[in-house]
Write a structure and sequence with these properties.
Chains A, B: Keywords: DNA-binding. Two copies of one chain form a homodimer. Chain A has 216 residues and is mainly alpha-helical. Chain A contains eleven helices and no strands. The first copy, chain A, has two domains: 5-72, Arc Repressor Mutant, subunit A (Orthogonal Bundle), CATH 1.10.10.60; 81-211, Tetracycline Repressor, domain 2. The interface between A and B is large, with 58 and 58 residues. Chain A binds a DNA duplex (18 and 18 nucleotides) through residues 15, 18-19, 22, 43-45, 53-57, 59-60, 63-65.
Chain lengths: 216, 216
DNA sequence: GTCTATACGAAGATAGAC
DNA sequence: GTCTATCTTCGTATAGAC
């Protein structure tokens, strides 16, 4: 990309790259600490220790603890909103919902910290997220709900309130990240692995596809 | 009740009653504050303000913040473990599961703070609850799972991993308490009311009973 | 840009009067 | 038993040397 200012000046580009690496390094540590300790429970010292940096550096890059937290939420929100692509009017209902469920479950498996971070934020009343929930998320839910209502009207799936169906799917899939501790203790396994996620996917698929008369 | 020591001595009895009232007053305030702020986010000053007492009184009755939090968890745990009674070998599978789902959803409606408190605790890794989760809860899940496996073996419901079915039901019902903020914003309503919980119950019942081939 | 040392405030806990 | 005043710790944030 020859118009990129950062690439035109190797010294500056290297510095910018260093900067991006530091930012990512801090954000990764913050994701982990905020996820399990919550906003109030997480200390800048703990995040700094997880990132392997003195805590003054965190303030140099992000200013305040809340700014770091907000930047993290902002970054993770993009991933969050990019999983419903499979639900389109021309899709087959069963394949679309199965794809969506598998994507959500994979998100819980690969990014449990991100899911826990959102859970903590919503539990707190979503002070930094309510605008996004009432904006982008609501709009996306309305759009996809319209698709589902179309399928229902065509008799291609059982009648259900689409928005509540989304709440149910979110809950069932995210619980494998947010309530991992509880699931692990009840199942008496040291950690959730392939087996547990396969059983989870199978259960959710049975309830959703079976409940909506999309398979035997 | 004539053998009751508290009733035999009116002055002492009245004092004990006063004490119980204070304890309940503080626990109710603590439930509300801990639920939305989490353990670290909640301050003794905030709980004291919610209870209408000076914060020194909280320390007089409970000693430390952690002891207050532990007492609260202990108290709520009893309610938590008392909802699966409907699932018994001689029950009809559809009626038993419907009764269980309605009980769990009613719990989310009437005691959202308690649900949020548990959610916060589990998100933190359940430092004060892991013994109960690996003990009483696991035992109860195993017992009820055996009942479900019996029904499956008799061909009375579709095959499903019973423990994961419980995880799914817990997630779908508790989400109306824990993620109330998100649901409220997506639905664009000022608060969750009769309508929203009816839609929620209908959705969960459809997925579970339909998914397990317990109704059309 | 990086890090040590520190200022400032908030919160848990207690002392001691009433 | 109750409450005000205070002690102490801890965490955020910054100052200032390198």
């Amino acid at each position: 990309m020859p118009g990129d200012a950062a690439m035109d000046q190797p010294p500056l580009g290297r510095r910018a790259q260093q900067r991006q690496q530091r930012l990512a390094q801090i954000l990764a540590a913050a994701e982990q600490v905020f996820a399990t300790a919550g906003f109030e429970g997480a200390s800048m010292a703990a995040i700094a220790a997880a990132a392997g940096l003195p805590k003054a550096n965190l303030h140099y890059y992000f200013g305040t603890k809340e700014a770091l937290y907000a930047a993290l939420l902002e970054e993770l929100l993009r991933l969050w909103l990019s999983a419903t692509d499979a639900i389109r009017p021309d899709s087959a209902p069963d394949a679309a919902l199965e794809s969506y469920i598998r994507a959500k479950m994979e998100w819980s498996r690969s990014r449990p910290h991100a899911s826990k971070l959102f859970a903590n934020e919503v539990l707190r009343g979503a002070p930094l997220l309510s605008a996004h929930l009432a904006g982008g998320l609501r709009a996306q839910v309305e759009e996809k709900s319209a698709v589902l209502r179309g399928w229902i009207a065509e008799g291609r799936m059982a009648p259900v309130e689409p928005r509540h169906l989304f709440f149910a799917i979110w809950a069932m899939t995210q619980t494998y990240a947010d309530f991992e501790t509880q699931i692990r203790l009840v199942l008496d396994v040291p950690a959730l692995g392939e087996r547990e996620f396969e059983d989870g996917v199978a259960t959710v698929l049975r309830l959703v596809l079976g409940g909506l008369a999309l398979r035997a």
